[in-house]
Amino acid sequence: MFHNERQHFLKKNKTMEITSAEFVISNTDVKKCPAGNFPEYAFIGRSNVGKSSLINMLTGRKALAMTSSTPGKTMLINHFFINQNWYIVDLPGYGYAQRGQKGLAQIKRIIEDYILNREQMTNLFLLIDSRLSPQLIDIEFMEWLGENDIPFSIVFTKTDKLKGGQLGNKIKGYLAKLQEQWEELPPYFITSADNRLGRKEILDYIEHINREIK
User: I need a surface site. Which of 40, 88, 168, 178 has the fewest CB within 10 A?
Assistant: First the structure.
């Protein structure tokens, strides 16, 4: 069901150095996203999955993406220009029930419009809380991505919260669940914003894709 030639990316290159990372624009309309053909790497996940912390860790900027103590607060598409060469796109978190039906429908429209209509989107990083069992909302979202041929990768977050063999068992169990539906698994990364785990692997992956599409 899933075919992604990018899964076997180069591992020997020196990790990309991020020399500049600047906020460009926030909006709710994909038509207002930045002009140009720079590749965009979008990050998405359920509310409170650690998305802002991960973006700050990847860029080495403590407050580039604003974290909130209120889950589900952000309803905007946020563009950050990296090294004057590519974008990180922070998409709204999904699945926060207290938004209400109207709010959930609005978020769904914003997310789907960007993912389906933004030609510059090169890869979608889907964040998954490593501490949790597979959530139906995430599984269904992955199925939707597959049905629409959207290139995506899985990023397991908050792995520092698991001790001993818990992490390995959680990841193994999650992948086993995915294999019930997927013939080929998407690339996945194991990360922690607190100890910078996974930073090199994700940046190497982005760098490889950037070289591949030039």
Answer: 168
All domains of the chain in start order, with CATH: 16-213 (3.40.50.300)
pLDDT, tens only, 72-118? 456 899 999 999 999 999 999 887 655 567 778 888 999 999 999 99
Q: Report whether 36 contacts 25 (CB < 8 A).
A: no
Q: Are 40 and 78 in contact (CB under 8 A)?
A: no
Helix (H, G, I), strand (E, B) or coil at 86: strand
Q: Residues 206, 121: contact at Cβ < 8 Å? A: no
191 strand-pairing partners: none
In whole angstroms, give the CA distance from residue 79 to residue 86: 10
Q: Which pLDDT does position 97 carry in this prediction?
A: 55
β pairing state of 152-157 and 188-190: parallel
